Amino acid sequence: MSAFPPRRPGATRRATTSRARGGARRAARGMLAVEMAYGFLIMTIVLAAMFHFGDAMVVRNRLTLAVSRGARVCAPRGPDDIVDCAEQQARAAMGPLLLGGTPRCEPMNVVTDTDVVDGVPIVTVSATCRFTGGFAQIVRRFAPGTAIMVLRSQATMPLAP
To answer: Which domain holds residue 90?
Structure first.
């Protein structure tokens, strides 16, 4: 005779052994580990992108301020030496913008244009630079000469008569 009581008629056997339950737990733990790895990867990419684009916005703001200073300081001087003055002022205001000894905005092209609009002489100073901060340093290592972002800014001021 068996040590177990007899089965009731119509009762089904369930796999309730500790081995079957442990296998299901291990599978659930494995799935959780994979989901956590994907979640961590996605969050890391999002966080790195936030730093990259935040740095680009800081550099773009600095470029806008530099161009504005170039136009504002040189416009009262008149149209005689406006080109050299605006470029010098913009480069001085931009500064080196270094990140670990590497410039984050190079090369900086400053273009100055004078025009007459409705009888008022105006000066337009615009600058363009290639953003080389953030992920751009990693991309340049594998693809030299690649520009991740080209930042542009422009300022216009009336000239002194």
So the answer is: 22-158
Q: Is residue 11 part of a domain?
A: no
- For the chain, which residues score pLDDT lower than 70? 1-26, 97-102, 107, 134, 136-137, 144-147, 161
Whole-structure pTM value = 0.68
**Backbone dihedral region for residue 97 (phi beyond 0: left; psi -120 to 50: alpha; all else: beta):** left
Coil, strand or helix at 22: helix
Can you spell out the DSSP letters for 42-82? HHHHHHHHHHHHHHHHHHHHHHHHHHHHHHHHHGGG-SSSH
CATH code for the domain of 76: 3.10.450
For the chain, how many structural domains are there in total?
Answer: 1
**What distance in Å separates the CA atoms of residue 132 and residue 97, rounded to the nearest whole number?**
10
134 inside domain: yes
